[in-house]
Amino acid sequence: MQNLSKNQQIIFDLIDKSAEPLKAYAILFNVQKKGIKAPLQVYRALDKLVEIGKIHKIESRNAFIACQNSSCQVSKATAFSICEICEKVTEISSASLSKYLTNFKDKDGMKYSKYNLEFFGLCKKCR
Amino acid sequence: MQNLSKNQQIIFDLIDKSAEPLKAYAILFNVQKKGIKAPLQVYRALDKLVEIGKIHKIESRNAFIACQNSSCQVSKATAFSICEICEKVTEISSASLSKYLTNFKDKDGMKYSKYNLEFFGLCKKCR
DNA sequence: TAACACTATGTAATAATATAACATTTATAA
DNA sequence: TTATAAATGTTATATTATTACATAGTGTTA
Lengths: 127, 127
Fold this sequence. Notes:
Two copies of one chain form a homodimer. Chain A is α+β, with helices and mostly antiparallel strands. Chain A folds into two domains: 6-66, Orthogonal Bundle (Arc Repressor Mutant, subunit A), CATH 1.10.10; 77-121, Ferric-uptake regulator, C-terminal dimerisarion domain (Dna Ligase, domain 1, 2-Layer Sandwich), CATH 3.30.1490.190. Chain A is built from four helices and six strands; from the N terminus they run H-E-H-H-E-E-E-E-H-E. In chain A, strand 2 and strand 3 form a beta hairpin. The longest helix of chain A is centred in the middle third of the chain and has 13 residues, at 39-51. The first copy, chain A, is globular. Strand 6 of chain A pairs antiparallel with strand 5 of chain B. Chain A binds a DNA duplex (30 and 30 nucleotides) through helix 1 and helix 3.
């Protein structure tokens, strides 16, 4: 595993210690004191961090969370639970789920190289 | 099933006859000749169409496609295959997949009211 | 019908999310 | 060391989506 660059490390640290997913401009606001001034600097670091699997993008929220699954080096097979009230997001690590989806073939026999699954519901607290 | 309003019908017809997912501003451009002039008019119709399950949003693409699954009245359980080259999107209707996911419970026993799954790979033509 | 609630529409302005283009610097490897 | 790739810095701009406010249509029901 390569080391992270300066900007990548700053942004990863911020996301990693956050309790909830962070949006790009929230990240920008937070790292301006560290010298990262422009959106593009944030998006470039985010792109790289997603590419190497250190963070994931929650597509339905346009937000980013740190990978909570140490074995997940690359974002090829991701599943999340999202509370529709408090917006808490948890990465699901279920061997049976990932096995099922990784092996899933559609009618045409098409096999996929990647998937992203987002579940929505109410978390314990909000129920 | 309620009838669609004028704007909803115009926008649904456009999406329904499109071979690929349409983005909101592409829709706007296409319906300007029919009197829909502002983004908000498009987004309002899209929101409603998604709500009643006539269309689905492809979250990773910020684009919309007509529901290809006649039994899918509400967008509660959606799965798509997306070609990473030609961007063709197909709605997957697999009884076993939807059964598996609808019944999926995480470690905490949390059951979900909704999910969205996006598979990525190469379609037949692009392989 | 009249009153009401609800849904949809129209319009302008603006917020939020993301990328293009170009110049420069730093890290890595041959 | 020289070449190459990766990362950075900066400005401008493109794309996606919402707020706020005014008006009009639709359906119920008293």
